[in-house]
Amino acid sequence: xxxxxxxxILDYFNIVFEGENGKIESNCKxxxxxxxxxxxxxxxxxxxxxxxHQAMYDEFVKKxxxxxxxxxxxxxxxxxxxPGGSSRFSTQSAGAVPKFDRSDPRQTLISEAIAKMIxxxxxxxxxxxxxxxxxxxxxxxPRYSPEPCRYIQQQLLPAxxxxxxxxxKQSLTSAESCSVTLDIWKTGAAATAGxxxxxxxxxxxxxxxxxxxxxxxxxxxxxLTGHCVTQRVLSEFDNISHTHGIAxxxxxxVADSAPSRSTSSFRLPGFSLGGEGEDEDExxxxxxxxxxxxxxxxxxxxxxxxxxxxxCLGRCxxxxxxxxxxxxxxxxxxxxxxxxxxxxxxxxFYNYVVATVTPEKLGQVxxxxxxxxxxxxxxxxxxxxxxxxxxxxxxxxxxxDFLEDIVDRHDLTLSSFEKTMLRELTDVLEPFxxxxxxxxxxxxxxxxxxxxxxxxxxxxxxETTARQCTGIVAGLAQALDRRLAGILEDPLYVTAxxxxxxFKLSWSSDTDWHKQVLLEEVAKHxxxxxxxxxxxxxxxxxxxxxxxxxxxxxRPNTQAKSVDQELxxxxxxxxxxxxxxxxxxxxxxxxxxxxxxxxKVFTVPATSTGVERIFxxxxxxxxxxxxxxxxxxxxxxIYLKANYRILWT
Length: 649
What we know:
26 helices, metal-binding, alpha+beta, RNaseH-like_sf, 10 strands, 3-stranded antiparallel β-sheet, ZnF_BED_domain_contain, 51% helix, 5-stranded mixed β-sheet, zinc ion binding
């Protein structure tokens, strides 16, 4: 016989505080953990019970199931008192499937799953009001009560954002230093024309924890509108720094001078796979005079913004290595006007092959994923990146004779000149592809890779002999010198590379000079921290040695090493492939001064940030025909998507 008493998750917690707007603080009855939430949003309580106390969670779910089964049977018995003082049981008929309570764990988990989908896919929150979406929910779980759009916008997503902010501030409290990336992305034509601009600013913080784990968190995503974008960026950066308590901890600020519509990845000119990006390619290639004029204006504004940023941030500001590397490749490819024509033909040939040839035959050339689902592979986001496209073209060229024999379109057949040019192109770009692969992806890569990459690319270009791609080689060399040559003499990059145990000074052609640069840089940062304050109390005299352990040789007193001694000992060791952070975690006691600097320089990223890659996705959503799909709280969604792992790991 079922009781009509309400089953609540709060039965497993003791409420110790209840504030305004339904905010409550409760202690878990099992372990005493303090949990903060709202009465209407109890996912924190459910999650804690599920993760920490599985038996109690199973008991709670079982109680809920018993109650639901009683409702579903259509005979829910309730106890009612009769006027005469006697008691009786009455039976009520349930015509429809009963809905979950708001505090039901399944109701909470389904709502959380919907929020995850909206955040991860950057979907419009209004999707929960769509008839088709609600029909799907009704089919999958008829007992679920769909949450209104307003509830998700005004309560659920802000609650998640508040949790991220609390966790971020707590993590940054123990961080000794950090680096910050300012990602500015402009929307539409505002990136190349007009005095007024609109876009977004992402402020990402990179820091190393006490156990030498590198973390990256997006501190804020803010919309930028109107004039004076640079001043607005600096103002927002200052406010966010003080809000999160990192104002005095920032080691370097990674901020490119000229905001752009595009991210650090781009397509090979004309090499469009599966028809993806045709609109974008038309925007880039058609009307090249307008694009060039826009780039000229943007460059002029970029120099002015660059001076403004340098005046306010000083030597703390550096350019992102990943974006500078991508710009070098992009400029080098523009040195050959004929290249786009050849790549366009190669793309047409590739698209025809994967659309007409059977997967069995394609499997002899391409990987199983491409052979089984070419259209899906061609339209996946990685295929829009030049380095991934280059890999595809290289595989195609390796078996181009075989592919030409099995297709019936002779007008798409590549000539000997075109094949030679494409093979030269893959050889010329291979080291750039390797460097790009290193600094792409979600993994944090420090700037210690930047200087060796520049040296390797320089050496490669100087030794490359090309007949058809001579202009590209010269263009790449010029772009490399213009954008990245300064890295070779920059004390920050010299320090980072030398403190990377896989390099040390093996790359240096003048070890004495680079040692001196490193010593000055280390001394500057260790002096900034200041010497330890002397103890106000006199040092106690050493205790008398125990006679019981007198047979053990007494350990001699070790004196602190100087920076020169630490560096000499460090460089005397052979280079190792060990991860830099693992190495310095292990060696922090042996090299306290060097490890102190290593913990700063390795926070500076060489990679593009997660929010920049999200901006690339947002760019497609902001096209005029898709603007209706945008949620009003886009900044919140970007903020939560970038910090997804903080909430759900």
